Amino acid sequence: MNIYVIEDNPFFRTKMMKVIQQVIAESGYVYHMKEQVVTAKEMLAEDLSEGPHIYLLDIELQEQYNGIDLGREIRKIDTQGYILYITSLENKLITIIDEHIAPLAFLSKKIDEQVIKENIQSAFEKIKQREEQRSDNHFFTLQRAGNQARIAYKELLYFEKVPRSKKVMLYTTNGVYAINHYLSSIKEKLVESQFIFLNSFIIHKSSIQKLDAKEDAVTFKDGSELFVGKHTFRKIKAQFQS
């Protein structure tokens, strides 16, 4: 899930990004700052359909789009995206916007940095909870000894191909399973936007807690680790941050 900050005041944008980075570092959210995307035009050129993503938009944006128009454009592409408006406008206009775009929150420019940080923390926690609820609707169906078992996506960590065999090992928060299928056939059963697909692995993005470039290791939310080669690690990092 990417974070876009579209604010045409360079000072305030830098301030917002600093606060967001602090919240992510302190809370361990798996959200990715798109620092190089500065304008509305640049953001709309991104593939937002792979969302949901998080958008912090200045209502008073002085570009081709103002914040309200930009919010409507986002809703056409990323219908489940999370919009947070940065504003100094009165509540009457906020109510009108809320009826059309349904933003998650409003962040006032008139409050101090600590309060902004607390508001962002609260919004990100709501996003985390909503995404957990959404992922509960997805299951991987496991065929074992003629029986079916459904494993919720939130329990999936990664799939690993067993060399020179038609077998895959599935690692979950509740144990390890052997599956008699090719990795390619498993890929067809998964929601593509939620996974990293490699030659020997399929990794659930939401289960990743940390990437360690020094050790070429992936740490998962249950504390388990996957050590890979440098080439594979670079591919994981690229897909994780895309």
TrEMBL record:
Domain Response regulatory: 2-124
InterPro entries named among the record's database cross-references: CheY-like_superfamily (IPR011006), LytR-like (IPR046947), LytTR_DNA-bd_dom (IPR007492), Sig_transdc_resp-reg_receiver (IPR001789)
Alphabetical list of Gene3D superfamilies matching this protein: 3.40.50.2300, LytTr DNA-binding domain
PROSITE patterns documented for this protein: HTH_LYTTR, RESPONSE_REGULATORY
Keywords, alphabetical: Activator, Cytoplasm, Phosphoprotein, Two-component regulatory system
Domain HTH LytTR-type: 140-242
Signal peptide: none
Entry keyword Cytoplasm: yes
Domain of life: Bacteria
Matches recorded under Pfam families: LytTR, Response_reg
Modified residues (4-aspartylphosphate): 58
Protein name: Response regulator transcription factor
Stated role: Required for high-level post-exponential phase expression of a series of secreted proteins.
